[in-house]
Write a structure and sequence with these properties.
Length: 150
């Protein structure tokens, strides 16, 4: 059965579709560009996300780590398990709440962070640097405005 969606003549109902497509396409292009470099550094995108998030911190709870990364709670545990096996991350009991476990970079993980994070920022700067500063500032404002709508 092939269902058709009824679109009314009211252009306000669908005028945001090009915006939605543009946002999705921009995100997909950014992800592809970023992930290609992350993989060249020998990491998966989720591993890089965790390393970048934990870098220069004393660690954070899994709940906080999940909120600050693009990784679902279900996947986070397995990814951290594998990173722990590589010696990049360690689990420690929180001193503030002994029921809570924190994820923290090991010295080996910190070394990796210090190597890959600046390299990736430089890679991204090559692309973002092609936008004039005023356009970047305007995009930040518009994206924040869009975020607040939701």
């Amino acid at each position: 059965m092939n269902k058709q969606i009824l679109i009314t003549d009211n252009t306000q109902d669908t005028q945001w579709l090009p915006l939605m497509r543009g946002l999705v396409w921009a995100y997909q292009a950014f992800s592809q560009y970023s992930n290609q470099h992350v993989k060249s550094l020998g990491l998966t995108p989720p591993q890089f996300d965790i390393i970048a998030t934990l870098g220069n911190t004393e660690g954070m709870s899994f709940k906080e780590l999940g909120e600050k990364t693009l990784i679902t709670k279900g996947a986070l545990t397995g990814i951290v398990d594998r990173m722990e096996q590589k010696g990049w991350v360690q689990r420690i009991i929180s001193l503030e709440d002994r029921r809570s476990t924190l994820a923290r970079l090991t010295p080996k993980g910190e070394e990796l962070f210090e190597e890959v994070f600046p390299a990736h920022l430089g890679y991204l700067a090559d692309a973002f640097g092609k936008l004039p500063a005023r356009d970047r500032k305007e995009l930040v404002k518009l994206l924040d405005k869009l975020r607040r709508l939701f």
